[in-house]
Amino acid sequence: MSTPTLVKFEDALTRYQPVMGLEVHVELNTATKMFCGCPTTFGAEPNTQVCPVCLGLPGALPVVNAKAIESAIRIGLALNCQIAEWCRFARKNYFYPDMPKNFQTSQYDEPIASDGYVDVEVEGETYRIEIERAHMEEDTGKSLHVGGSTGRIHGADYSLLDYNRAGIPLIEIVTKTIEVPGDKAPAVARAYVNHLRDLMVALGVSDARMDQGSLRADVNLSLKPIGATEFGTRSETKNVNSFRSVERAVRYEISRHAGILDAGGTVVQETRHFHESDGTTSAGRPKSDADDYRYFPEPDLAPVAPDPAWVEELRATLPEPPAERRKRLQTEWGFNDLDMRDIVGAGALDLVAETVEAGATPAAAKKWWLGELARTANEQGVDVAALTITPAQVAQIQSLIDAGRINDKLARQVFEGVLAGEGEPEEVVQARGLEVVSDDGALSEAVDRAIANDPDAAQKIRDGKVAAVGALIGFVMKQMRGQADAGRVRELILEKLS
Ligand SMILES: [Zn+2]
Questions:
Q1: Relative to the CA of 476, which of 368, 461, 469, 484 has its CA 20 to 30 Å away?
Q2: Which fold, 440-497?
Q3: How far apart are CA 76 and CA 4, in angstroms?
């Protein structure tokens, strides 16, 4: 495979306008699958949640899951879409071993929801993303390629198939073409996927975990010369699985397409794989046009014709729209626009909100999620939401600080322990012996040693130069490995030297 010539992102934008399209798959959290009664529990033993319907055995007949229809309609409404009064499922024919029926039950020209929009915010600017459609379909099974270094089928010794996921309800949300200022394109793509995640969680229709694949984004991208009206050929980067990766995939594809176009080459219409390790993409399979799928209406399923009165009932169950919620939280928390922008930009809005609900002050919640934890996430190359610490645990750590049992410095070690899987904050404090010493006996001895160690500083304090107390406090803290109650140490020093 030849290495593509990349053009620097900023240079590419001087000549080309990126055009994006985003397809997001949301796995619904229904108890059972889309067309059968099999459970949908994540992480079960392979092939234990299957039946004749989801295995595509001859003669098995599917039945639509009403809860999935309800979720699909609520998603459509939240995306400001029109809800179809009558629509059908369609068979999308293609052969893949992870799809036992040899067709996927999907929707084609009659989606349940169409023509909507969402507004996303990037650096204080609002961008409207138009939604073409949101349609229902079923997930495929999962292939596991064993042997070989890449985990892909090439070079593998053999492949295993798990059909537990086959037939889990999915909603695919497809945007119309997105044309925003080129330098904003990566951030807008990220903000949009982040927005959808927040929306799905608020609706309660999916756990929308990118790291577990319950929310997956495909990034379509093409370039056209600035001023041109005709679109270029697009590539489709599949299954990008973090917000950060969405942003990186857009940037990389802009650089790659520009390299091909600058050299007078032709962009190939194909799917591409995204590589987390270095932020690059590589060729997948040539992308079929719709004709190749031989779509036709699914004869085994009745059309879906939701009663308009029911749709209105569902509309009444919609959660507060994300933009309004952000404004409300900003007022409640007393943050300025910049604070909120940082929180939303870091994908930490829900985390901060849940931490506040668990008892921390907004300022403390923001401090930890945007400081220590954002830094850790960045080091690990993951989104903050994927860190193995819960908002409740963050609130507990803050309450240990508020109770004077640990200080900020020790708290960092507690975060480290919780993230390393050493247990709850309290257990980490115990196991690592992190508690602040405020026992006067132990502190008093350490203070005496500090005074003996630095008679000059002690004399200055006796002479009324209280600023010199810092040096003695520093000595005590060092001796007690940061675990002394600094306020009490200061009091003791001043008492002894007054
Ligand atoms: Zn089944």
A1: 368
A2: Arc Repressor Mutant, subunit A (1.10.10)
A3: 39
